[in-house]
């Protein structure tokens, strides 16, 4: 008869009261609340910094714009010195009224300065080393793209045509000024006469397409914005989906400053005063070369 040997069984180990609990959380990560707090702090800091960055960027663009205007002064003055104290014109004081450097966006061939589609700056081509970027304000967005003539070229095609001259540089506003083409020596006050400025218009001709108040109290820039905001008319409404074209004359300091080159060679800022009413625009004599009754202040 077999003898069954009993095996001594050890009693079960006692479980720790914490043995059924989950492992302790690692402290290497972040909780959702911590992440949300960090994101909120970053958003607050960004909100504080972005306006300052935008202001700094605008200031840098304004400095570049003023530098370009001064370069334009040097080149156009050299041209006038070589051409009997007269700026470039097509004859009889006429200037090109278009804004194209080439025939179309696919062409690299510059138009001759006498071409009816040429930008006025092409007349000074050899004096600025063919560097057309000098005429591109870094804050410009839309200038005259001639959409009413059926053109639909991209806005970038026009970005080196962002400064406008005025017809009274070469054509007298009245007989007391002289005869066309006017000479630079005929201007009564070169320091208060505009040569060119930030503008959607390549060649400004009057109150409807400049910031000059030729008729006291009447609205300015009506060709482009009608009677102005809040309901813009003119080319803005018919061709550019209500774009605020007044900002192309006032491109800097939150659309409150128009940077301008004067005949005597200095460049300065014209502050925004209004689009209609008694304070609209500036004294028109800044364009015609007559003695200015209400000079602008930088």
What does the overall shape look like? Answer: globular
Q: Helicity level, as a percent range?
A: 10-25%
Q: Give the strand order of the largest sheet, numbering strands 1, 2, ... along the chain.
A: 3-1-2-5-6
Helix/strand structural class: alpha/beta
Low-confidence parts lasting 5 or more residues at pLDDT below 50? Answer: none
Beta content: 5-15%
SSE ordering: HEEEEHHEEEH
Radius of gyration: 33 Å
Distinct helical segment count: 4
Report the count of strand segments: 7
Number of domains: 1
End-to-end Cα distance: 124 Å
Largest sheet descriptor: 5 strands, mixed
Q: Would you tell me the overall average pLDDT?
A: 89
Can you describe what's shown?
The protein is of the alpha/beta class and 298 residues long. The chain has one domain (33-288). The chain contains four helices and seven strands; from the N terminus they run H-E-E-E-E-H-H-E-E-E-H. The chain has a five-stranded mixed beta sheet. A two-stranded parallel sheet has the order 4-7.
Task: Please tag this protein with its features.
298 residues, alpha/beta, two-stranded parallel ribbon, 7 strands
Short overview:
The protein is of the alpha/beta class. It has one domain (33-288). The chain has helices at residues 32-82, 222-225, 234-239, 285-288, and strands at 163-166, 194-198, 203-204, 212-213, 257-262, 267-271, 282-283.
């Amino acid at each position: 008869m077999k003898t069954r040997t009993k095996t001594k069984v050890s009693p079960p180990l006692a479980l720790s009261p914490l043995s059924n609990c989950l492992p302790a959380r690692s402290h290497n990560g972040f909780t959702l609340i911590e992440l949300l707090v960090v994101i909120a702090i970053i958003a607050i800091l960004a909100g504080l910094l972005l306006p300052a960055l935008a202001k700094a960027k605008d200031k840098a663009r304004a400095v570049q714009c003023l530098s370009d205007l001064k370069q334009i002064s040097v080149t156009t003055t050299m041209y006038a010195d070589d051409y009997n104290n007269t700026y470039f014109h097509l004859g009889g004081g006429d200037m090109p009224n278009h804004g194209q450097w080439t025939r179309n966006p696919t062409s690299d061939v510059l138009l001759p300065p006498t071409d009816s589609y040429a930008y006025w700056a092409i007349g000074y081509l050899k004096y600025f080393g063919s560097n057309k970027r000098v005429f591109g304000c870094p804050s410009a967005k839309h200038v005259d793209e001639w959409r009413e003539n059926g053109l639909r070229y991209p806005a970038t095609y026009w970005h080196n045509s962002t400064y406008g001259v005025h017809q009274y540089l070469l054509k007298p506003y009245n007989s007391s000024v002289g005869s066309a083409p006017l000479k630079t020596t005929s201007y009564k006050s070169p320091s208060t006469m505009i040569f060119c400025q930030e503008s959607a218009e390549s060649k400004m001709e009057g109150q409807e397409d400049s910031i000059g108040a030729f008729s006291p109290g009447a609205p300015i820039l009506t060709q482009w914005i009608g009677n102005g905001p809040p309901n813009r008319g003119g080319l803005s409404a018919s061709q550019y989906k209500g774009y605020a074209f007044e900002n192309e004359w006032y491109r800097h300091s939150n659309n409150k400053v128009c940077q301008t080159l004067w005949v005597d060679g200095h460049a300065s800022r014209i502050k925004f005063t209004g689009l209609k009413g008694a304070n609209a625009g500036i004294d028109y004599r800044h364009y015609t070369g007559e003695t200015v009754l209400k000079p602008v202040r930088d």
